[in-house]
Amino acid sequence: MLANPREVSVDVLGKVLYHGAYSNIALDHAFSSVSLKEEDTALVTEITYGTLKYLITIDKILEKNVTMPLKKIERDVLNILRISIYQMKYLDRIPSYAVINEAVDLTKKKSKKASGFVNGVLRGYLRKEDKEMKFRNQIEEDAFRYSFPEWMIRLFKDQYGEDYIRILEGLNERPVITFRVNSLKMDRDEALEQLIEHGYHAEKTKISPFGIEVKGGKSVLLNPLFKEGILTVQDESSMLVAPLLVSEEKRYMDICSAPGGKATHLAELLDDQGEIHAYDIYDSKLKLIRQNTDRLGIKSLSIEKNDGLNFLPELKDSASVLLDAPCSGLGIIRKKPEIKMTKNRKELEELVTIQRNLLEVAMKYVPRGGNLVYSTCTLNKEENEENVRWFLKEHPEFSPVPIELGDSEQLRYTSEGFVTILPGETLDGFFISKLRKN
What we know:
4 domains
């Protein structure tokens, strides 16, 4: 029996908002657990991600249209209201009367006595829409328009000035799929030609010479080039990191490696001839790295369990290091919109301490003349350039190596040559720095 797509969305939202699940994992689990038509799978994805993306705005709308605190509404009923407001406000192709009818029918299944309440709230919104919304200042208006917490908007505005609007818009964009071409098996031109022959709407990425952007076609898992290990899914921003580490060094370390995208890219760039050590702390993530390595046909990667904060003395002064540090993830909100609700200012401050401790460990592996590349997928400057500047002050034996990726309007360079990538199109928000031990 085919599942109701809106019910699937409500169930996934419940897992993400109330049980700490990641949206992408919860959706994958739902799709493997229920039977859906292909178009309904797309609808579930749209409604789930869209509701999470605009949840702050949706909840402000609901607060104007109900007489009780939202936390007192049954969770399933509240999520039915949320997905319904999302469809009515942000989706043009579904008539509002159809959205309300679907919501009432679903509520009868979840909580029969609440169906009249849901009908009344949604019809009330339909009459008023957003006409009653008033804002005390620009930040509050931006929070409603772009659906971000006010503290996060202030952070972006304080750190990036007028670029903050561009960041908010970029983080609300729908991400496209980008593939990295495995140069061990095929060059990019040939891979692009084969993708087009297979019916994909694809083109080369603009900054990375290794990527292909796919704008339309069958799913990733059905892609024959993916199955054969010619392609691997990786954001274009992430593709820019590994090439910066390649040098005459014989040994490399990726000390926070999962899911292994940058380590496998490094192996490809070294023609699978280098000595590369990829570490992570969790067995499940190590398994993921191994699966990716096997599919790509890479032999030079040594996959080992270790906490990046745990120094391995036998490797002292012996390897160039990639530290893609655990971070707040503010640059990947377009892929994980629940970050808007799950992160807070205190957590960002705690991460800075962890990142600095990781840098202190990573530097011990680097020999004279070796490189340390530090990257994150956040846009918080305290986790990015401020961390690296602190490190350079503490360790004058290291100096910055300027990064040059071109003059894209999404790139922002510091005086030292660090680069921040603003989100949008094929690019996640990202930070990269390169340091050399003198």
